[in-house]
Amino acid sequence: MAILCYHSVACGWDDPVSVEPEDFERQCRRLARSGRVVPLSAMLDRLESGREIPARRTVLTFDDGFADYAHFAVPIMRRYGLPAAMYLVAGSLTPEGVPVNWITGLPAEQAPPLLTVEEIKDLRAQGWEFGSHTMRHADLRTLGEEECYRDLKESREIISDLLSESCDVLAYPFGRHSEHVRRAARKAGYRIALALPEEPEERGPFAVSRTGIYRGNGGLTFEAKINPAYAAVRRLRQRLAA
Ligand SMILES: [Zn+2]
């Protein structure tokens, strides 16, 4: 299985989270050739019941809601007929907005813009999926369970209202979670939650593993990361190192 996690696709943003459009295009061409990319929504029942996506299937996800998604990533994925889901920081959809203060080493004033409400609605109308990445991208482990629950419920409601549909999927900021965070996510009404494990961790519908794709991941690294064996080998390596 491989659920890939991207953040930004943009020209010349020299940060690990940002992939150059030409590299992304090469990766999309490779994925399109495999003919095995499916939308996350098609895997929802399966993931909700605690199973993994079938080996040799790939799902594309994006976190943070950067505006470059509409300008670079979507046109490229459209060209190759690939579906994807984006996880939004719901506070950015409120009149007050939120500072983009979660990129390491980057002051919020210099952060790239996020998608606007109009762009999100427009993309949804074209079939692109959306989910929640919380209200303001806090590390949920640092919040108490009640505060966590309020954040997750509010962000879910904002996105559901905006798109006039149920918001079923949460992506944890930084991929981080803990027992009380998973409990709060379930209680807030999500069907599954996506992680981005750096260490061995609990698995199941509220800790669905993803594989991050970062700047400069070349052909061989990408090939390894989309290989169904990658997640299993990484888990094994983590276990041996633990
Ligand atoms: Zn994020």
Automatic annotation (TrEMBL):
Key words, A-Z: Signal
Domain of life per record: Bacteria
Principal localisation: secreted
Location of the protein in the cell: Secreted
InterPro entries xrefs: Glyco_hydro/deAcase_b/a-brl (IPR011330), NODB_dom (IPR002509), Polysacch_Deacetylase (IPR051398)
Domain annotation NodB homology: ranges: 56-242
PROSITE patterns (alphabetical): NODB
PANTHER family in UniProt: POLY-BETA-1,6-N-ACETYL-D-GLUCOSAMINE N-DEACETYLASE, PTHR34216
Name the UniProt record assigns to this protein: Polysaccharide deacetylase family protein
Lineage: Bacteria, Bacillati, Actinomycetota, Actinomycetes, Pseudonocardiales
